[in-house]
Each structure stands twice: as C-alpha cells, then as structure tokens.
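Illustration: Chromosomal replication initiator protein DnaA.
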Amino acid sequence: MTQEQWGQVQQTLLQTVGRNNFKNWIEPLQFDNLSDGVATFHVPTSFLGNYVSQNFGDVIRYQMSATGADVRRVRFEVADGPAKPSPKPAAERAAPATNGQAGPVVHSPARTAPRDDLLPAAPLDPRFTFDSFVVGKPNELAHAAARRVAEGGAVTFNPLFLYGGVGLGKTHLMHAIAHELSSRRPDLNVVYLSAEQFMYRFVQALRDRKMMDFKELFRSVDVLMVDDVQFIAGKESTQEEFFHTFNALVDQNRQIIISADRAPGEIKDLEDRIKSRLQCGLVVDLHPTDYELRLGILQSKVEIQRAQYPDLVLADGVLEFLAHRISTNVRVLEGALTRLFAFASLVGREITHELTQDCLADVLRASERKITVEEIQRKVSEHYNIRLSDMIGPKRLRNFARPRQVAMYLCKQLTSRSLPEIGRHFGGRDHTTIMHGVRRIEELRAQDGQIAEDLELLRRTLEA
Ligand SMILES: Nc1ncnc2c1ncn2[C@@H]1O[C@H](COP(=O)(O)OP(=O)(O)OP(=O)(O)O)[C@@H](O)[C@H]1O
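Result:
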C-alpha cells in the first residue's frame, strides 16, 4: 500500500470515526509499510499506539482491506524510541485512566484539558452512527427524538430519556447523537459517559479532594449523556451529586440525554425527586424488535460480513430464518451472524439452513420463543371465530379443518415442538397428520393470498 492509498483510507476513516476521533487518533498515525499482511504505523507515543490498536484497530484493518490490500493485522511502533512525554496530542490528555475503568468521551478535549485527571476520554464506537442504525416500528420514535437532539438546535425537551431492554440500541443511539453533534457542532462540549463512570469520577474526586473541579467540569458541558442511569439506584451520594449536576445543567438550558433499562418511574431505589426530574422531558422507549426490524438489521449487518468474506455464498431464506428464530436482542442476532460467517469461512461451505442450524444450535436453543402450542391454538380459534374444542376435536368440517392446519403449521414454525408432540396437543393425532397439515398450509400460503395474510397477522400477534 502506498502513502497515497493510505491517504484515501484516511478519508474513509474520517467519515467512519467522525472528525474529532479522526483528529485525535488517526491523524497522528504515520503509515510505514504493509508486508506479509501486517500494516505498520509509527506513532508518537506507545500510549497512543495501544489506544488506537484497542479502539480503532479493527476499523483501520477493515478499511485498508476494503481497498483490496491483504491486511490481517495492524501494528503500531513508537517513532523515535521511548514515548516522548510531551507534547501530548489533545485527545491523549483526556485519555482513559489506567485503572481499567473506561472514561467518558470528551469531544472538545481542549476545553477540558486542565482537569484531565478527572475526565479521561474513551472513544465512541465508530460503528454506532445514525447511518448504521436500522429504523423500524419498534424504535422509530426513539430514533426520531435522537435525531432531533442531534441537530444541536434549541433545547426543546430536557432531558431526553431513552429506555428499553438489553441490546435494543440505546447505547448505539447515544453514540450516534454524539457523533452527529460533534460533526455538526464542533464548538459544543459533548460528554458521554455511563452512570458507573459518573460514580467512579465522583468517588475519585471526593478521594482526591477535587470536588470543586468535578462540579465545575460537569457544569461546563453543553451536552451531557449518561448511559444506564439505573446503575446509580441505591447509591445515595452519587444520586445526590447527579441531581445537582442535572439541575445545574437544566437551569443553564444545556441538553441532557439519559438512558436506562426501564422507565424513570420503574427504577427502584431512585429518589423520587430524581424520578420526577427525569420524567420532565421526553421519555421514549425502544420496544422489543419485531420480525421486520430484525430482518432489516440482519440485511444491513450482512453487508459488513460480505465485505470481510466476499467469497461466501449465503442461501436464500437464512436471514429470514434467523430473524424468526432469534428474537432475544440485537446483540445476540449480530453475534450469531458474525459467528455464522466465520464458521462458514473456516469450513469453506455455503451458508445453508443446515449449516446455520449446526453452527448456531446453542443460540437457537437459548432464544427459543416462549410461544406455546396452547397459545397458538387459542389465537387461531379466536381469529377464525371457532371454538377451541372444535379446533382440537375430531370434526372434519372444512371450517374447522383449515384453522386446525393453520395452527399446526404455526406450531411447527414458532415452537420447537416435534411433530408427535404437536400431534398430542391436537387430540392425539398422528405425526403424519400434522406433517400433512403443515405441508398443505405451505402450499396454500404460496397460492392463496388470504391464507398468507392470515398467517402473517397471526404470527405478528403471537410474537408481539
Ligand atoms: N436498530 C438497530 N440497527 C442496527 N444495529 C442495532 C440496532 N439496535 C441495536 N443494534 C446493535 O445491537 C448491539 C447492541 O446495542 P446497544 O449496545 O446500543 O444496546 P443497549 O440498548 O445499549 O443494551 P444494554 O442495555 O445492554 O446496554 C449493538 O452492536 C448495536 O449496534
């Protein structure tokens, strides 16, 4: 790879990691050479090298490979022997402490430099942008609110409170806001940190008798984002300090964005005055994903995998299968896809249904839906307006037989029950009867629009 080509990679990295991250971490890298799949860079300090390696190593390798170069590893060497103590790059002054606690992200390091020991920085995840966030019904409101805040205009709702279950994209949205704000409004001092980091900094400031600095620092930010605020529940003095910080910022009309795993009112051991403060702005939740959103996310993430494994063939229907079967959370979905591609590349096979089931057996088992046969039978009989006993019973009237077959089909699709087990739930029918029913519905689904529509509606109701 030539210096010129590295220059082009840098342009792409600028887009991917955002201007601040780029200036602080990528720009100081001096590309030296690429040999035997190892790209070597010179860095001003070993600290910067380690930091970039941990946080941007993958994205650099990925973007270099995207130009067609064979880059399997990136290596950082200190340019002139041991690290020079000064001058440090701006971002390094705001770098993570060595205590293993990742610190908050500071997007205007220069403004916070004098108090760097209290506010060390960690990077935003460069992949968590609005571009890579797939929007669907369950998250559209949260996404719209996040977009609005990211415009950096006048503060209209304060705080923005995002909540939702594990792995549904809260952190992704918060990072996306920070990326967007730092590129639209580089003048703003945007601070992102987890509630745990807030507590850690607070305790550290108390211990080092630097509370004045701490207060001044947090009150000087323009946009404060605190992730997983439920963490401070039950921690009295941290709550107290958080409350004061919060009020001071709101009084100055500074934007606050908070995330949690549940609504403010439902966070146990959180003081009422904080709960009510948190409810003052806009409270939006990220709903559990639905099938369409999961499929959309898989389709977007598969592109990333394809770039890494361009030769792999993905059979039709595999993504749909995964979107159906893994309904826990997006992190699990993403992990499954990564694992599937890595496995397929290792064994050099096409990604088929069979390979997917082999490779992801444990994930599929763990995320088996909790939909029961009884539930399906009940919903289907309600849908077709027949009695449950008629659906399960022996009557062969078409009015009962068709819904019965629909229910059998859904049991096969949405539960992990075997055909004989399903048969037992349908008045002790033989497994061949169930198989026949399932096949019949499969055929009808392709020919009869009404049946296809019924199935879709029932599936949605059952998965909701
Ligand atoms: N709508 C989406 N589009 C694309 N990726 C998504 C979406 N929702 C979640 N993800 C991805 O799923 C993973 C988990 O998301 P994230 O870390 O934001 O979840 P979280 O809600 O903060 O979870 P936790 O409660 O565990 O902190 C991330 O890799 C994220 O990029």
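Reading the tokens back as a structure: The CA atoms of residues 189 and 222 lie 5 Å apart.
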